[in-house]
Amino acid sequence: MLSLILVLRVLLFGRGLAHYGGAFEGCQSLEEVIILGEEIYIDETFRQCDNVVLKCYAWNEDVQAFGERYGIPVEIMANPTGEHNGLQYEIIRDEVVITGYTGTESGVAIPLALEGKVVTTIGEGAFKDNVTLKHIGLHQNIKTIEKECFSGCINLEEVFDDHYVSEIGAYAFEGCEKLISFDLSDDIKEIEPYTFSGCDLQSVDIPQGVITIGSRAFFSNPSLENVYVPSSVLSIGFEAFGACIGLRTAYVPVGEGDIPNINVFKRSNNVSALHYKTISRLSNLLPREIKEAVEDKSVIVIKRQKREKTLTV
Fold first, then answer.
1. Which one is predicted more confidently, 296 or 65?
2. Residue 260: its pLDDT value, please?
3. Residue 108 pairs with which residues in a beta bridge?
4. What confidence tens digit (pLDDT) does each residue in 135-154 have?
5. In this predicted structure, what is the pLDDT of residue 77?
6. Residue 10 pLDDT exceeds 60
7. Alpha-carbon distance 214 to 59, whole Å?
8. Distance between CA 183 and CA 250 in Å, rounded?
9. What is the pLDDT of residue 297?
């Protein structure tokens, strides 16, 4: 029996549909269909093709749903992969994800495109535990740094063009003990747990629009002296700024959501003042030992002294 291989390739800029109707309905000799595009309407196209197997990429959920509906086998194809100057990558849809690095250079610049497709993501654990990396250059098309991407890169000092990144995964820079700065994008909405834990950030400018700061997001940054948290933040996790031994002042005008966890500043023993927008449930924010609190216009200024545990307003 002659094997017929049909390749349906649809290139779409934006969203749209390609309709094939019942073009192959009842073709008993059809054995294999490779579907490379997306937004392809095949609801009747391969019905009663008893010998056919559909092949698609994992992200093409419509094809998988079609196969399940009509009892047609679906095989998931591996995404195309490659390597360029030590950078390992995977092509998903029409975008490139950096998945690993085998080189030994201290400075790495992520290319704008590979195989004619834009690089948009640095994947999970791509540079994890790389001890030679000191400088990483991003670009305006990179919007996502996935979890543990640079975790354990103990010599990483600089990240260039970081302000374009709008999504950063948990533990992304955990343990980057020489990283002294990171410019957070105005588009970022959540700072995941442990994102910058164990770094040496000297300042943190959290943009207006951030809603959540995860547990230990900035834990143990010894050179961090001042923190300003915008009013858009609704939740701050456990020890988000804990063990920041150089922290002196924190401005926390929290919005209308959850009052921060009681241990936000745990083990940041040198905090001398917290500036807070409202007195409501204030004690949930405070370090363990408090000397006095006085109201100053729209904020509450809290000064602390060790071993004292009373709050007076």
1. 65
2. 52
3. 136
4. 999 999 999 999 999 999 99
5. 87
6. no
7. 29
8. 19
9. 37
Beta bridge partners of 113: 118
Phi first, then psi: give them for residue 228, nearest 5 degrees. Answer: -120, 120
Q: What is the pTM of this model?
A: 0.78
84, 112 in Cβ contact below 8 A?
no
Whether the pLDDT of residue 301 is over 50: the answer is no
Helix (H), strand (E), coil (C) string for the chain: CCCEEEEECCCCCCCCCEECCCCCCCCCCEEEEEECCCCEECCCCCCCCCCCEEEEECCCHHHHHHHHHHCCCEEEECCCEEEECCEEEEEECCEEEEEEECCCCCEEECCCEECCEEEEEECCCCCCCCCCCCEEECCCCCCEECCCCCCCCCCCCEEECHHHCCEECCCCCCCCCCCCCCCCCCCCCEECCCCCCCCCCCCEECCECECEECCCCCCCCCCCCEEECCCCCCEECCCCCCCCCCCCEEEECCCCCCCCCCCCCCCCCCCCEEEECCCCCHHHCCCCCECEEEEECCEEEEECCCCCECCCC
Whether 83 contacts 90, CB under 8 Å: no
Provide the greatest CA pair distance for the chain: 89
> What is the per-residue pLDDT across 253-276, written as a single tens digit (0 to 9) for each?
655 555 555 678 888 877 765 665
Q: Which of 126 and 53 is assigned the larger pLDDT?
A: 126
Domain boundaries in the chain? Answer: 4-77
Tokens of 305: 């002294």
The DSSP bridge pattern shows strands 81-84 and 87-92 to be: antiparallel
* Token code pair at residue 274: 């917290």
